[in-house]
Amino acid sequence: MTTAIVPAPLDVQRILESIDTMAAQKPVAAQIVARASADDTSAKELAAILAGDLPLAGRVTKLANSAYFGMSGRVSSLQFAIAVVGFMTVRTMATVALTDLDDESRLPEDFWLTSTHLAQAATMLAPRFGERPPDALCLGMLAQLGSALLHHNDPEGYAELVAEEPDLPSRRLAEERRYGIHAQRLTAVALEHWGFPRRMVAALYSLDDLTAPDGALLRVAFEVAARLSSRSHVPVPVGRLCGGLLTEDALDLVVERVRAEAGGLRLAMLG
Amino acid sequence: MPAMPATAEPLVPAEVVSSVFYGAAVSDSLVLLVVEVVDGTPRIAWGNEGATRLLGYGVADLQSLPVASLVPSLRGAEVGLLLRRERSARVDLSVRTASGALVQVVVLCTPTPSGRTWTLQLVPADSGSERVRQATAEIHERRLATLTERSPVPTVLSEQGMRLAHVNDAFCSLVGLHAEQLLGTGWMATVHPDDLDDVIEQVVAVLGGRDGEIRARLVRGDGTERTTVLRLSQLFTPGVGAGFVGTVEDVTDRLAVEARLAHQARHDPLTGLPDRTLLAEHVAERFRPGAGGLAVISLDLDDLTVVNESLGHAAGDELLVEVVTRLRATVRPGDLVARSGGDGFVVIGEDLDEGAAVTLAERIGAALAQSVRLGGVDVRPHASVGVTVQTTGHRTAEDLIRDGDIAVCQAKAGGKGRISVLDERARAGARDKLRLVAELREAIEGREITLLYQPILRAGDRAPVAVESLARWHHPLRGPVSPAVFVALAEEGGLIGVLGLLVLDETCRQLAEWDRVLGAAAPQRANVNVSALQLDDHLHGHVVAALERHGLHPSRLQIEITESALMEDPSSAREVLGRLRDLGVSLAIDDFGTGYSSLAYLRHLPVDVLKVDRSFVAELADGHPQIVSAVIALARSLDLTTVAEGVETDEQAAQLADLGAAYLQGFALARPMTGEAAAAWYAARTR
């Protein structure tokens, strides 16, 4: 069988420019993405900005009251909701809104299923890898942002590419061939562009380097998501992905818990 | 130089621009590169000295170097991410030096307006203050994490709502689960479902900025419960949001000890029964005024003192334990059995009418009457049982319990082993008595108790030698109340002390008054009656104070004590009386012959006088002088003088004088009179 070589239909620069265009169309979300990282930002200040985007504000309040945060519906004010879910989560939700990730018709197949698997796995494993669970949650939620951007810009071509390359490493090579950049690096570029923390960006950059500790948590999270995926996947020994930090037995438990709990997270994040 | 238009912006002279650029070029701290696209490939066009130093290339080598070889981590089209056409970019990157080593830098890339060249500023990441600050913060965080991890105090940390980001080993041990099972909201399953709402409520308050503390039960992995105190503080991380740090104190064992102590404090240690306080609470919880159905069955063991004195206290304790076992076996489930005192028990039953309560009391009586073997002796424990059932007359729980006490007193008065139901008459009598005690208290406080004085005369020449003070109470409605009644009331109602002080003080005052009015003709001595309950360490002080207050010599006072009072606690009585005698106060035994005093013991008492009881004097009229005669002989043999009381006829007076009585007292000789009348009587006798 021969695979037709399709010339790269996209210019990375154009994709990045499209991000800027998105920001212009959704100023509140863009402002949240920009402000939420500042050390001097307060929940009160974020609430004041977020109040300008009622659907997003409603989603944050709903999330704070979801079973995921265990607050049993006691969060009544937006400001308190922001404090409960954390600034990074608010920022992640704003990023989701900004990039139209909440419109499933414009996303690759199983996008949110995989993203919630990634987020749940990363959150659960974060303490073991010395990472903060809230940051890990957001990294997991946004890790596939690049895929979504590629899909936005080349829906048919990207769907075909995904179908042909179910395994991540080979898919990344195919993405590089086709677009000059693979999806996770595009995610990294976008997050860096928006000023997300260096550690999150570094994790994405180091994804392919099995010796880099920065990418270990996300590599393992991707492995968990792959094992839970309906697509065929040859499991990669987890020890190789994280320098022996985790054993297969421990990972099995994580896979089971993620399988059980990711639905709740998805419901909480997306409504 | 042409003149500059007045409205134009001032231009920066070219030499200033040049010097600034030169300054930048030679600055040690700046690493600058200029990039241009040559034949479609971005290449270095120029680098300053800082750049040559950092990258290890000569200025010439640096020129024309493809940017891609400098930034190996940017592959293919990714170089375009750095060299944006219309905006600056900031990227963390590794740059490859001439030696092949990678150096971590932050690249700030600014396009020139032409869009064909870019200025790159490279800031070595290691020297950046931000990285230093971050590293320092990470070290602090790691130290804190280590500290918490090894702390024996169970500690949890949340970074989002109820979601735990961290639990230490001590917390895992406390709940018997692994950290993975507890992180996120997993730990919420360990909080007892009944306590979870309160814990969340507290977390809400803490996330809002307050500190919080709450007691909550945690359910361990093995299903056992631990009671803990959670102390929570807000943990606000700038740029992250609000979480909390919580320390958990396991108070299960402490509470168990406290509960045990509290139980011990309110339960009888021997039998484990609730004490009187708990009994009162139990009744109060169930008492509804106007309703019925509550029954109080009060028991007093009749034989406990006998068992204690004859078989020893261990046997007495054994008896009490046996009685409790039988009581518990006899009462209905839900009835309360309490210990109300040394030999007293109370059973509280609900939904009982009088008939059912009496039936239960009879069953109890029968169960107790079975013999029990104590120290090899068969003993049949009997109890006096009083039954009271709640009526509309009981306004409070205390009323009902008090009636239980009255009922058992009534049963005891009727003889051992009786069951007595408190009837309306007995209840009315008891209430009347309570009212009278209250009125007596008011009478004492208002000095409405008055004294009469009855002279005591020498038998030979009928010369007065002393007076006896006699307390009188004239009730405003009831008229005169007998001293036998109100003295007994004062003893029961705890008023005997104040009554005794009143009599002592008023007598001394009257003696001083007589001295002032009559001079040498005044009564030389007054006799004051003292109750058994006054025979304590305070009596001596009270007597001294009264004498001093009125300027009297101790010989002006004689204390009269009944024979039975002396025998209640003989050794204590001897000590108290000894001190009074040493003071110079003389002592008389009142109503002699009616008690059971041991003659051998009498010999050692510091008394001066025996007062022959009026009942023996009365027998003289019936031709029975034997007892009076024997008492007088006994007194003489012990070197004591005698006073014959209740002399009602001249014949008796003459006969008593013949029998050898030293002094006489009675209506035939002089009636009790007021202080004023006594003064007149004395004055008349002197004339």
UniProtKB/TrEMBL annotation, chain A:
<dbReference type="Pfam" id="PF08668">
    <property type="entry name" value="HDOD"/>
</dbReference>
<dbReference type="InterPro" id="IPR052340">
    <property type="entry name" value="RNase_Y/CdgJ"/>
</dbReference>
<feature type="domain" description="HDOD">
    <location>
        <begin position="22"/>
        <end position="210"/>
    </location>
</feature>
<dbReference type="InterPro" id="IPR013976">
    <property type="entry name" value="HDOD"/>
</dbReference>
<protein>
    <submittedName>
        <fullName>HDOD domain-containing protein</fullName>
    </submittedName>
</protein>
From TrEMBL, chain B:
<dbReference type="InterPro" id="IPR035965">
    <property type="entry name" value="PAS-like_dom_sf"/>
</dbReference>
<feature type="domain" description="EAL">
    <location>
        <begin position="433"/>
        <end position="686"/>
    </location>
</feature>
<dbReference type="InterPro" id="IPR000160">
    <property type="entry name" value="GGDEF_dom"/>
</dbReference>
<dbReference type="InterPro" id="IPR029787">
    <property type="entry name" value="Nucleotide_cyclase"/>
</dbReference>
<dbReference type="InterPro" id="IPR013655">
    <property type="entry name" value="PAS_fold_3"/>
</dbReference>
<dbReference type="Pfam" id="PF08447">
    <property type="entry name" value="PAS_3"/>
</dbReference>
<dbReference type="InterPro" id="IPR000014">
    <property type="entry name" value="PAS"/>
</dbReference>
<dbReference type="InterPro" id="IPR001633">
    <property type="entry name" value="EAL_dom"/>
</dbReference>
<dbReference type="InterPro" id="IPR052155">
    <property type="entry name" value="Biofilm_reg_signaling"/>
</dbReference>
<dbReference type="Pfam" id="PF13426">
    <property type="entry name" value="PAS_9"/>
</dbReference>
<dbReference type="Pfam" id="PF00563">
    <property type="entry name" value="EAL"/>
</dbReference>
<feature type="domain" description="GGDEF">
    <location>
        <begin position="292"/>
        <end position="424"/>
    </location>
</feature>
<protein>
    <submittedName>
        <fullName>PAS domain S-box-containing protein/diguanylate cyclase (GGDEF) domain-containing protein</fullName>
    </submittedName>
</protein>
<dbReference type="Pfam" id="PF00990">
    <property type="entry name" value="GGDEF"/>
</dbReference>
<feature type="domain" description="PAS">
    <location>
        <begin position="140"/>
        <end position="210"/>
    </location>
</feature>
<dbReference type="InterPro" id="IPR043128">
    <property type="entry name" value="Rev_trsase/Diguanyl_cyclase"/>
</dbReference>
<dbReference type="InterPro" id="IPR035919">
    <property type="entry name" value="EAL_sf"/>
</dbReference>
